[in-house]
Amino acid sequence: MKFSKKLITWYLQNKRTMPWRETKDPYRIWLSEIILQQTRVAQGLPYYLSFAEAFPTVFELASATEEQVLKLWQGLGYYSRARNLHATAKYIVNELEGVFPDTYKGLLELKGVGDYTASAIASICYDEPTPVVDGNVYRVLSRYFGINTPINTTAGIKEFKGLAIELMDHEQPATYNQAIMEFGALQCKPKNPYCIVCPINDSCVGLDKGAIGELPVKLKKIKVKKRYFNYLVYDNGNQTVLQQRLGKGIWEGLYEFPLIEDEKCTVDTIPTTQTFKEMVNGGEYVITPFKEEPIVHKLSHQHIYTRFFIIKTDTNLLLQGIQKNVNRQEIHNYPVPILLGNFIDSFFKV
């Protein structure tokens, strides 16, 4: 039996029940694929359900504010996905009259949609034989065919895409694409794959050569950068201060407390900083650390060492243009990074 047929047979017997597998609506498929980028299904499923409930069609999503979208996305990470999701929804509604492109090439024109996402939508919604290549697919193909080419190189991307095209089941493109992804997620897992009961173990090169644990090959990541964030949490009982992150760095468009990025900040040195002086404006204050040790928040290429300093003062704060007074009861309504969301839930209890 062909490779593709074996995977499809396995899939039909073992697939998980998912809401996006019950539809061919391109909006729902697109929504699920964007959410599941760089996200495990278990983590992404609640977000998919929340978005589908809040924005049942692309028209509701397009009509939402960016803050509403970011708030619903809070905790999922890689926030550029949320901004692209919102921008694409508005483009589809305003420029395409609410109709999604119905070809792989057309889908590639959408912001935030790359080769994998376009392939998934085109095959699932329109039965176009366009193979998906994601982390699960790289793993399955590299192990089964014993391929050592690093998957995060130009040569590797080209080689695996070419192989995926050769293996594509043109009669059942949607089922095949979902089968190979599900097979990688459940059967050919990154660690401790179920090789003994694998339906293709009799012809797996990686298993035969004892190389399952070494495949796929991936070049080492870039060096992780350490950053030190010190947040000034003003607390007069009723209000605090938030500001929106601008620019193209991490957490663009999300809210945070006034920030001093400096490794050496302490209770003694915070008052000497220009940010603190400008806000307190010479008034009396009491400053205490929320915790003595920094909270380490790990991103893909950055580790954020974070401390929160609680500032109590009755002085009218001298706010900068990007800062705003926020009522204590309303702070939970603002989209913030999960790091700050956890602090807010702990410190500003409803």
From TrEMBL:
It is an enzyme of class 3 (hydrolase). Keywords: 4Fe-4S, DNA damage, DNA repair, Glycosidase, Hydrolase, Iron, Iron-sulfur, Metal-binding. Binds 1 [4Fe-4S] cluster. Its EC number is 3.2.2.31. SUPFAM superfamilies: DNA-glycosylase (SSF48150), Nudix (SSF55811). GO terms for molecular function: 4 iron, 4 sulfur cluster binding; 8-oxo-7,8-dihydroguanine DNA N-glycosylase activity; adenine/guanine mispair binding; metal ion binding; oxidized purine DNA binding; purine-specific mismatch base pair DNA N-glycosylase activity. Its cofactor is [4Fe-4S] cluster. One of its GO terms (biological process) is base-excision repair. Coiled coil: none annotated. Residues 35-186 form the HhH-GPD domain. CDD domains: ENDO3c (cd00056), NUDIX_DNA_Glycosylase_C-MutY (cd03431). It catalyses: Hydrolyzes free adenine bases from 7,8-dihydro-8-oxoguanine:adenine mismatched double-stranded DNA, leaving an apurinic site. This is Adenine DNA glycosylase. It comes from Aquimarina spongiae.
